Amino acid sequence: MRTWQRHHRTTALLIGTAVLMTSGLSACGSDSDGSAPQSVSSADIRKALDKPAQLTVWSWSASLPDVAKAFEKKYPKIKIDVKNVGTGPDQYAKLQNAIKAGSGAPDLATVEYSAIPQFALGGSLVDLRQYGFDSLKSTFTPATWDAVHLGAGLYELPLNAGPMALFYNKRIFDKYHIAVPATWDEYLKAGRALHRADPKTYIAADDGNAGLTESLISAAGGTPFRVKGDKVTIDLKDAGTKKYAASYQKLIDEKLLAPITGWTTEWNQGLAKGNIATLLSGAWMAGTLRSVAPGAAGDWRVAPLPGYGGKQTSSTNGGGSIAMLKQSRNKLVAAAFQRFVSVQEGADITQKSGSFPAQAKTLRSPQFLSAKDPYFGGQQINRVFAASLAQVEKGWQFLPYDVYANSIFNDKVGKAFNGSQTLQQGLNAWQEALAAYGKDQGFTVN
To answer: Among 176, 361, 398, 446, which residue's beta carbon has the most beta carbons within 10 A?
Structure first.
């Protein structure tokens, strides 16, 4: 089930990007200097829930309508209208248009962790510290708590996490007597063995995926993006990025990656039949596999992300929650719904839909960790994901225009996947374009 994950493709960023960014560079001063906005009492929020009010929420989450119904049942004077106005970049474009127009934005909207900086820097999101939500830090895992901040500002309460793992088709691996790879060298060897045994079978499918690339760079220790206020450093030649590029290039050179676009019928069929033997993805992929390849139940398993030898490291891929727009006319009720979604009953509803939780106590729960998943042959997959989350490399930052960065990834790096250039050459071209765009938006870029 696709809920909050990063998307394989992004459409070009539409109207309002330049206005959003340039007008917002000065809007984040209170966030970067650490000063918190004026606080609102819990009593004020409780009083607001006793009065008739309506919230509009934009989200493509399959579970959020059920969460909204549960909230309405608990607070019958509140009505919540959940609208799916598009997935990922399509929704973001509509949000940006509403922000530019000064009206038409919802009270709340799904904003992936990677997109928070872009909207927060634009001054369009509410800093949740004013509701005392910064006191909830210990409720969530460090990786997800860090992901919802820009400077000192808090712009969401984490809802889910996307710890990276290796999803592999055990039936196919067993058929060809191939061991599950623990390192990237072993992953390459497994890819060779699979393709040699059956030329129609590939170790993975990838024809250019910005979110996956960023996650794999992070897992390799790369920190190519550094942001401090309006100062941005871009270095897609740092040690971690070069380590990833050199390793992944071998898969491309030997044509071990299926040139199949994700989320297509061909991709679904490849997963169902086993012609795509592994997926490098966030924990949310467990729900996706159940949805797109139900006939492959029992075939798939989960293992740690391949490493480079030595200390096991990982990263996150995807994840997000709901942010409050400054245009909201019912901010107290919106704040109550955010807490309900991430801390109270809503978090349980979302987890049951296949989302991996961000709450620290859940990840310590023996019941959660020991749960056996029938789709994955009874494997306790949550143990793998929880271990991955604990091994996430620190220091990763998204660009304050990551939505735009993703939209041009295939234009700059995509040619590497068909052999027209090397992966490092593509990343270099991406860096040049991102630096030029950042300067155009008023950032100081190094």
So the answer is: 398
Which of 350, 292, 283, 342 lies closest to 317, judged by CA?
283
Q: Please report, for the chain, the start and end positions of each structural domain, with discontinuous segments joined by +.
A: 17-161+318-363, 164-315+394-445
What average pLDDT does this structure show over 304-318?
92
Contact 215, 387 (CB under 8 A): no
CB half-sphere exposure, 392, CA atoms < 13 A? 24
Q: For residue 53, what are the β-bridge partners?
A: 78
Q: Which pLDDT score, from 0 to 100, does residue 1 have?
A: 34
Please spell the DSSP secondary structure of 212-273, one letter per residue.
Answer: HHHHHHHHTT---EEEETTEEEE-TTSHHHHHHHHHHHHHHHTT-EE---TTSHHHHHHHHH
- Does the pTM surpass 0.85? The reply is yes
CB 39 within 8 A of CB 239: no
DSSP state of 87: S
Of 86-90, 265-269, 441-445, the poorest mean pLDDT is in 86-90
Q: Given a cut of 70, is residue 358 above it in pLDDT?
A: yes
Q: Is 442 exposed, middle or buried (0-12, 13-18, 19+ CB in 10 A)?
A: middle
DSSP conformational letter for 12 = P
d(CA 153, CA 28): 8
Burial 182-194 (b: 16+ CB within 10 A, else e): bebebbbebbbbb
- Within a 10 A sphere around the Cβ of 247, how many other Cβ atoms? 19
CATH code, residues 17-161+318-363: 3.40.190.10
Q: Please tell me if the domain spanning 17-161+318-363 has the same topology as the one spanning 164-315+394-445.
A: yes
Q: Mention every residue, 6+ apart, whose C-beta is less than 8 A from residue 15.
A: 93, 96, 97, 100
Homologous superfamily assigned to 164-315+394-445? Periplasmic binding protein-like II (3.40.190.10)
Name the nearest CA neighbour of 400 among 210, 152, 234, 222.
Answer: 234
Q: How sure is the predictor about 369, in pLDDT bands with cuts at 50, 70 and 90?
A: very high
